[in-house]
């Protein structure tokens, strides 16, 4: 804020508006200085002639060097497609050769329809170098369905119109239309993309997004592009079947896919489906970098283990941390972790095992497997990663590996280490030890309503059938508010609305509230001053779930986390706050997705230095659909970047005459 204010004053003093041809407002200044990092050969052309410099995106998967910026072009076609469909011929009947036909999607070996990017599951990986420019044309061929794509892990500083949140940063991409996303690969590390509309991500609209920078050569020997572990839970029906859902049919996960592959375990016959698995080829006595992505939708956290191997965590959410060697990683939807694996065992196959945790445990446990295959030497034509049918017998859910030392547990235990106990490897920012300018307490909940309350109301309200609860339904709220989205894009259509459309806990005048209840629906917004230091205290007092919170537009420092006294009330917390630990972490980890311990809290801090409207939300897909989200407005409307020429608009159409 101070830097922008200082530059603004200088700008006005020297009359820059007259001879540099840009206004002296923060948004234009940030944009101007951000563009100054673009190589000279692109500075005068990258806006008007961007595609002149574009190369096929696959060519951007290269060894990264300085001063070698590329414009990387990708085309995504979204369509309804089939697992074990016509492209697979007789794969389902046991002809393994047919399973590898072009455009055959095998999944876990069970037929279903899904939403595909370029007829792949997951969609094609984007792999580029830091500071490349990414251009993605999204062509929506999903008849009757509008959607968007969010680039999870990218802050979109200077490019807020590419954040991909419907009715915040853009109007949804209508079917039979196209939308071009253009943004900088500024944030290095392991990320992913996914639809941010409805339950489309649950149905398969996602893929890996990896940005390489200068390698950490002292930590590993090889960082192969193919060595990512993309984890996603998977159902055999459309997710919409369970939203709002049926009392007789709960949303049960059937498999965990690793890079789109798994075997389905039929719990009645205790037999696995006949499907291939992802296989990573390695050699002994080498340190390999693996990138782990959690693209799951359901309320069950994952743990990942590698048979007889420990591994060293070196990055979380694209941010380097002090290396930590563990046996088990606990991770939630939206989180990414980079690990190194030292291949010090005898030559054979080892299981990479991903398992669901509470509430998906015991007979409800779901697992996914891949193979770490040792070779004494590299064979001619051998790939780094294969997809193969394996003859090895998979272990059952009750044949577990030893947990050993676990990282990212919701609370410190004798065998566990929480994120809050780790340290960032990067230099700490000055504001970490400063007092916050604004503090927000955000309480996450899934309040219950009986049928009588919900279905006698004259007001429509988002709900979901509660699991194992007769006559009860869940909402999804933050501070008892379920987020509604406006019928237009807040960022691009600023001129058509005013302050009265928003709400918060102190202003529910225009909210849609359930009778005799404190729960309301409205456009829940928290206003933040540009440049201010913001502290969020994220709380879950009652839910049995460990909610993963993801913030768009900013990364935050994880200051502390813990379990609250079971007798404490919300009113007491709001009145007295939560005591900070005496021995604070002077160099806390930096993340964009964090777990909120059930019956506990996590405190995070960030500097609001990115103008725009940014959503913060639970990354369980059903909870987000229920409205467990809040909008952060950073800065004033007058400071925000103007919409590009020709940017799509949307709104209600309510004529007062026959048209």
UniProtKB/TrEMBL annotation:
Residues 103-214, 227-376, 515-635 form the Plastocyanin-like domain. PROSITE patterns: MULTICOPPER_OXIDASE2. The keyword Electron transport does not apply. Residues 1-18 form the signal peptide. Gene3D superfamilies: Cupredoxins - blue copper proteins (2.60.40.420). GO terms for molecular function: copper ion binding; oxidoreductase activity. The keyword Signal applies. Keywords: Copper, Metal-binding, Oxidoreductase, Signal. One of its GO terms (cellular component) is plasma membrane. GO terms for biological process: iron ion transport. Belongs to the multicopper oxidase family. This is Uncharacterized protein.
């Amino acid at each position: 804020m101070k830097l922008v204010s200082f530059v603004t004053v200088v700008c006005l003093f020297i009359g820059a508006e007259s001879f540099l041809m840009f206004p002296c407002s923060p948004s234009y200044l940030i944009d101007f200085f951000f563009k100054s990092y673009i190589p000279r050969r692109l500075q005068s052309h990258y806006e008007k002639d961007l595609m002149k410099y574009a190369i096929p995106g696959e060519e951007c998967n290269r060894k990264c060097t300085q001063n070698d910026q590329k414009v990387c072009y990708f085309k995504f076609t979204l369509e309804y497609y089939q697992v074990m469909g016509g492209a697979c011929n007789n794969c389902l009947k046991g002809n393994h050769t047919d399973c590898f036909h072009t455009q055959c999607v095998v999944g876990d070996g069970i037929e279903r329809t899904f939403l595909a990017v370029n007829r792949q599951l997951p969609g094609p990986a984007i792999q580029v170098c830091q500071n490349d420019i990414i251009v993605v044309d999204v062509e929506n061929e999903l008849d009757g369905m509008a959607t968007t794509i969010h680039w999870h892990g990218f802050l979109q500083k200077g490019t807020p119109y590419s954040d991909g949140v419907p009715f915040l940063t853009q109007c949804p991409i209508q079917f039979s239309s196209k939308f071009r996303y253009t943004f900088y690969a500024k944030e290095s590390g392991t990320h992913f993309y996914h639809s941010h509309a409805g339950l489309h991500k649950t149905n398969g609209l996602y893929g890996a997004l990896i940005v390489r920078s200068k390698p950490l050569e002292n930590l590993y020997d090889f960082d192969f592009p193919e060595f990512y572990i993309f984890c996603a839970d998977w159902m055999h029906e459309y997710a919409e079947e369970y939203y709002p859902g049926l009392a007789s049919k709960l949303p049960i996960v059937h498999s965990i896919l690793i890079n789109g592959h798994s075997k389905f375990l039929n719990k009645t016959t205790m037999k696995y489906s006949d499907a291939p698995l992802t296989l990573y080829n390695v050699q002994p006595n080498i340190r390999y970098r693996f990138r782990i992505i959690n693209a799951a939708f359901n309320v069950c956290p994952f743990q990942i283990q590698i048979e007889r191997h420990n591994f060293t965590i070196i990055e979380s959410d694209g941010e380097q941390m002090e290396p930590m060697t563990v046996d088990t990683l606990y991770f939630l939807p939206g989180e990414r972790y980079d690990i190194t694996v030292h291949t010090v065992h005898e030559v054979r196959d080892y299981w990479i095992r991903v398992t669901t945790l509470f509430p998906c445990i015991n007979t409800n446990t779901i697992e996914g497997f891949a193979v770490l295959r040792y070779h004494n030497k590299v064979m001619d034509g051998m790939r780094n990663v294969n997809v193969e049918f394996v003859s090895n017998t998979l272990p059952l859910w009750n044949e577990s590996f030893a947990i050993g030392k676990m990282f990212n547990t919701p609370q410190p235990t004798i065998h566990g280490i929480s994120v809050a106990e780790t340290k960032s490897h990067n230099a700490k920012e000055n504001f970490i030890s400063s007092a916050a300018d604004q503090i927000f307490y955000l309480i996450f909940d899934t309040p219950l309503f009986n049928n009588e309350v919900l279905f006698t109301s004259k007001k429509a309200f988002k709900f979901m059938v509660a699991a194992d609860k007769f006559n009860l339904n869940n909402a999804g709220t933050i501070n008892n508010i379920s987020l509604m989205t406006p019928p237009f894009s807040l960022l691009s259509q600023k001129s058509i609305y005013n302050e009265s459309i928003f709400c918060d806990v102190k202003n529910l005048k225009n909210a849609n509230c359930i009778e005799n209840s404190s729960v309301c629906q409205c456009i829940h917004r928290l206003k933040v001053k540009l440049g201010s230091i913001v502290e969020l205290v994220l709380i879950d007092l009652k839910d049995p779930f460990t909610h993963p919170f993801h913030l768009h537009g900013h990364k935050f420092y994880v200051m502390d986390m813990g379990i609250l006294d079971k007798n404490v009330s919300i009113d007491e917390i709001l009145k007295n706050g939560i005591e900070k630990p005496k021995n604070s972490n002077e160099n806390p980890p930096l993340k964009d997705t964090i777990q909120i311990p059930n019956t506990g809290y996590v405190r995070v801090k960030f500097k609001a230095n990115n103008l725009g409207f940014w959503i913060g939300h639970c990354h369980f897909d059903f909870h987000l659909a229920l409205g467990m989200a809040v909008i952060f407005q950073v800065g004033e409307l007058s400071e925000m970047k103007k919409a590009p020429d020709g940017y799509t608009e949307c709104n209600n159409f309510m004529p007062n005459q026959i048209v």
